[in-house]
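Page 37, continued from 36.
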């Protein structure tokens, strides 16, 4: 590598915005070491960059990208982008999108922030040398114990810590399960409609992927029995179907468990927001009825605590422990220890239970408020049935199929609603509408003033 290559790298990084005005460039010595070249080579590149005004030398403070540099937008717009692929672009936009009615985010304004900071400080200050060693691939044992206790009490799941694997999110949980258990030819059944990211992951990973429709009682088990008796895995969201929020009825729960036992199939229960059920009876998990041990339970702290924690877990049947342990040793490397310790203290101190209780009643009232505001303004165009739980609501279009066009309009007003049709992999059962989060709307007035923004354009679209 010569000085010209180093020069080119800087020019590209600066023009593409990866290196911004005012940011520090690495020291000549460090960069030379990093690239395995002589100091002189880096020095020559820096001299030219300084001469051209891209970098400035600030003596002991080191070398910076010139803070006064104005990047030519035309260059940046034409610079090759990693996101030129339209499908990838769509997915990235969806994950990173922020705005009013954003989906699946807890009420961040009501999070017990001070308590969390207190516990974070405590954990950081008490860090030991041992805490710097490799973390366990199954997860921090005290956290696994705390989760097992929580699941026993709150979700009716009879499990112990050795059945629990900590992962960094739902897709990681799913990948671990498939890695440990699925062979190339296995048939996997997913719900239709179903969780967008889960479906995308399965499309990449599973050759024999098929779908079972969902109706007002959850996934249609008669359909499954009739058409997919050869399936090895069924992935389902029984507490609040994603995205329709209906709960799987009790007869269907038993039918599904019996089917799995008879066919030696596995059920993957995605209980992503089962904690937020508002009818008087808290809904038990499917796993709590699983006398045959055919259910692999997948939970997450993204909804109960915060998505940026990136902490989720899998509860595996006892018979599968050695198989999972061996797989994890090969394909996993464990998660950062300190956040696991903070979370463990949060649960074992009782703060988690207290928080859940508060959120349950807050969500119930915020949901009602957003529902009422929405129906007041858009009731002519939509039906919005409220189910017994869930952290989002679905508005079904009474006529037509223009949910994507509508979402484009709403998103241009910073309203992050999503088109229901996006959750359907196939066209035949597709329904149209809006899927929206309500958890961060504080009052009916806030809801109304946000909903008013696209009112005129919405009417025009439907006229
Ligand atoms: C259906 C469903 N499953 C699982 C998750 C949890 O994902 P994660 O644990 O990766 O945040 C979500 C989050 O939006 C979801 O909607």
């Amino acid at each position: 590598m010569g000085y010209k290559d180093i020069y080119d790298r800087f020019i590209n990084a600066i023009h593409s915005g990866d290196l911004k005005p005012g940011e520090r460039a690495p020291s000549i010595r460090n960069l030379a070491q990093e690239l395995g070249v002589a100091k002189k080579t880096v020095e020559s590149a820096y001299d030219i960059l300084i001469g051209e005004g891209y970098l400035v030398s600030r003596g002991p403070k080191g070398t910076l990208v010139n803070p006064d540099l104005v990047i030519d937008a035309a260059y940046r717009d034409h610079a090759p982008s990693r996101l030129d692929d339209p499908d990838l672009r769509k997915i990235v936009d969806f994950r990173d999108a922020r705005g009013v009615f954003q989906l699946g985010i807890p009420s961040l304004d009501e999070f017990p922030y001070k308590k969390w900071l207190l516990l974070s400080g405590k954990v950081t200050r008490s860090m030991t040398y041992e805490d710097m060693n490799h973390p366990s691939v199954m997860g921090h044992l005290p956290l696994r114990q705390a989760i097992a206790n929580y699941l026993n009490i709150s979700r009716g799941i009879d499990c112990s810590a050795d059945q629990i694997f900590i992962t960094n999110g739902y897709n990681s949980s799913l990948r671990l399960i498939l890695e440990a258990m699925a062979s190339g030819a296995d048939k996997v059944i997913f719900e239709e409609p179903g969780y967008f990211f889960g479906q995308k992951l399965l499309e990449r990973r599973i050759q024999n992927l098929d779908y079972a429709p969902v109706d007002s009682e959850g996934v249609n088990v008669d359909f499954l029995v009739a058409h997919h008796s050869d399936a090895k895995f069924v992935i389902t969201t029984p507490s609040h179907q994603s995205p329709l929020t209906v709960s799987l009825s009790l007869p269907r729960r038993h039918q599904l468990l019996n089917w799995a036992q008879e066919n030696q199939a596995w059920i993957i229960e995605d209980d992503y927001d089962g904690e937020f059920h508002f009818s008087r009876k808290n809904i038990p998990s499917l796993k709590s009825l699983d006398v045959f041990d055919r259910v692999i339970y997948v939970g997450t702290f993204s909804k109960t605590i915060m998505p940026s924690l990136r902490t989720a877990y899998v509860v595996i049947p006892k018979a599968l422990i050695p198989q999972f342990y061996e797989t994890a040793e090969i394909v996993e490397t464990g998660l950062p220890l300190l956040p696991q310790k903070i979370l463990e203290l949060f649960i074992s101190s009782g703060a988690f239970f207290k928080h859940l209780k508060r959120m349950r009643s807050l969500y119930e009232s915020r949901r009602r408020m957003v529902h009422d505001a929405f129906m007041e303004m858009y009731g002519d165009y939509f039906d919005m049935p409220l189910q017994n739980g869930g952290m989002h609501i679905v508005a079904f279009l009474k006529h037509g199929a223009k949910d994507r066009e509508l979402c484009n309009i709403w998103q241009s007003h910073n309203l992050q609603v999503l088109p229901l049709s996006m959750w359907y992999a196939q066209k035949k059962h597709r329904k149209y509408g809006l899927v929206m989060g309500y958890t961060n709307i504080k009052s009916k007035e806030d809801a109304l003033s946000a909903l008013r923004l696209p009112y005129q354009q919405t009417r025009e679209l439907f006229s």
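The CA atoms of residues 96 and 112 lie 24 Å apart. Flag for discussion at group meeting. The longest strand covers residues 208-215.
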